[in-house]
Amino acid sequence: MLYLVLAVFGCLSGVTAVLFGFGGGFIVVPVLYRCLKAFHETGASPAAGSPAADSAMLIAVATSTCVMIVNAAAATRRHHAAGNVPWAHLFPLFWYVALGAALGALSGTQVPDQVLRWAFAAYVAATLADCLLRQGFMTLRPDAPAPQPLRHPQQAAAGTVIGTLATFLGVGGSVMTVPLLRRRGLPMRQAVAAANPLSLPVAVVGTLGYAALGQQADGLGAWHLGYIDLAAFAVLSASAWLGVRLGAPWLARISDRLHTRGYVALLFGVLLAMLFE
User: Fold this and answer.
1) β-pair partners for 224
2) What's the mean pLDDT in 3-22?
3) Which domain holds residue 137?
């Protein structure tokens, strides 16, 4: 039953990756966290009450960064083929996100499990408030200037912060990159498309970091590479790849208005999932 649940939500994470730029973290982290807690704390596993239960949120975040590689790469390929990726807006922001990702992976292992959970929820709540209360996200101003890439100092600051928080929380950074690029004047389809390649450095650096730093953790079980749950990764990544293929045909059918509202609705659903454990 555990892996059936993961397969369903893994497929959903693939759909959201290609349609909304969520590389999977906002779906994978809450679902995998709840599944791991249930599996290891109810006696359904020989390791009930084990270190895997105590580190459920950290394992969920680490596994999410690994799944994100599959989601972000597949979604980037689809968006590039459709001509949606605004490459001029991505560099050198891409490299600063990678730098921040290394810092986030290091700091994530130093924080208690419950702190990670509430940090994740606070992160989503702040983003929701920003999208709803500040102008420039829900609708583009009719008198807005043509989209312009961020200046270099802005790219350095924004990229480092995005990479750090995204890897720390296992969410890929789309929750910050999409609103950021949206407010630079990009249509929602291009802002979402840009979020996927920007998630790749978070995914790769975060995966390597959690795999290495988790070697010091004891008692997580044989099917772990550091803090990464390999069995969960296999199920989630295979079903996510299917989800990307299912979601891609809808890219050209969603209006900008519906796209923004769907993005906000999805954020709200994830927040509820984390608050009402």
Assistant:
1) 229
2) 88
3) 2-275
Separation of alpha carbons 23 and 7, rounded Å: 16
More confident residue, 107 or 45: 107
**What total number of domains does the chain contain?**
1
| pTM confidence score | 0.78
Which parts of 87-243 are beta strand (E)? Answer: 224-225, 228-229
The residue-averaged pLDDT of 71-81 equals: 89
**Rounded CA gap, 224 and 60, in Å?**
12
- Enter the tokens of residue 219: 């008692």
Phi then psi dihedrals of residue 224, to 5 deg: -130, 140
List CB contacts of 215: < 8 A, sequence separation 6 or more: 226
Residue 74: Cβ-neighbour burial (10 angstroms; 0-12, 13-18, 19+): buried
Determine the 3-state secondary structure of 229 from DSSP: strand
Distance from CA of residue 215 to its chain's centroid?
23
